[in-house]
Amino acid sequence: MGPSQRFGSGIKPSSFASFLFSFSMIMTACACPKACHCTDRNGVVVQCTSRNLESIPTNLPKDTVILLLSSNRIRHITREAFSDLHRLRELDLSQNAIENVEVGAFQGISESLRTLDLSNNHLSGLPKDTFAKLHARVRLSHNPWHCECSLQEVLRELRLDPETVNEVSCYTSEQEEYVGQSVIQVLDSGINFCNFHHKTTDVAMFVAMFGWFSMVTAYIIYYIKHNQEDARRHMEYLKSLPSTSHISKDCDTASSVL
């Protein structure tokens, strides 16, 4: 059986390959979100840069390997936002307005993802388990980070991008002297933000316990004083009553007269 017979009706192998390529391109275009542009490069590359998007597009192709969402107006990354994209290797969310990322946002892509860019957003903190099991190299530079215990615990679990690691700085901090400094350099110097957190918690507990003790003490003092006042009034009342001996004498006198 010749090549023309194998591919049917005289279609040459090169023509058939061309047809398959064209067909796959048409299918990719059909599956592509309306605001984005998709190309097939051994997996789909979804280009959604600078499209004024306010949320992650829905119905992304399941064989997406690169998703570019930079320079939009996205503010929140919800739980399981990318859970269907099991082949995703690169995710660019830089230069948005992201304020929070929910725990589980990267669930489903933690094993496949290799690079994650969250730089130039509005992040000041992240939940401790935001990047659980994530193996990707992460960019977090140029965000208004608040340096405290939970941020330290998040960074401990990450592979920060070495080229931008020193650009992850304390915009605010529980300790004023660290504002403007690189978070990693501060931590490498031996500073432990969690110690500050524990000390603050201990002080707060001490203040609360002192307040509770003061309230109990004040109540006891009030109770004693109130009882003392009642006792004093009772004694004055008893003193105002005729004595027993005086009443007996009056009774004896009355008996003698009779």
Question: Could you walk me through the main structural features you see in this protein, from its secondary elements to its overall organization?
Answer:
- With about 260 residues, the protein is an alpha/beta fold.
- The chain has helices spanning about 5, 15-30, 150-155, 185-190, 195-240, 245-255; strands at about 35-40, 45, 65-70, 75, 90, 100, 115, 135-140, 145, 160, 170-175.
- It is elongated.
- It starts with a helix and ends with a helix.
- Residues about 1-10, about 15-30 and about 195-205 have low confidence and may be disordered.
Quickly give the structural class. Answer: alpha/beta
Task: Order the strands across the largest sheet as they lie in space.
Answer: 1-2-3-5-7-8-10
What is the residue-mean pLDDT, rounded to a whole number? 81
State the helicity in percent bands: 25-40%
- Count of runs of 4 or more consecutive helical residues: 6
Shape summary: elongated
Rg, Cα atoms, Å: 39 Å
The percent range for strand residues is 5-15%
Termini separation (Å)?
Answer: 156 Å
Which H/E pattern describes the elements?
A: HHEEEEEEEEEHEEHHH
Largest sheet: 7 strands, mixed
Instruction: Tell me how many strands there are.
Output: 11
Given as residue ranges, the uncertain stretches (5+ residues, pLDDT < 50) are 2-8, 16-29, 197-204
Describe, in short, the structure shown.
The protein has 258 residues and is an alpha/beta fold.
Features of the shown structure:
about 260 residues; alpha/beta; 6 helices; about 40% helix; elongated; disordered N terminus
Spell out the blueprint of helices and strands.
Layout: H1 3-7, H2 13-31, E1 37-40, E2 44-47, E3 64-68, E4 76-77, E5 90-92, E6 100-101, E7 115-117, E8 137-139, E9 145-147, H3 149-156, E10 159-160, E11 170-173, H4 183-188, H5 193-240, H6 244-257
Parallel strand pairs: 2-3, 3-5, 4-6, 5-7, 7-8, 8-10, 9-11
Antiparallel strand pairs: 1-2
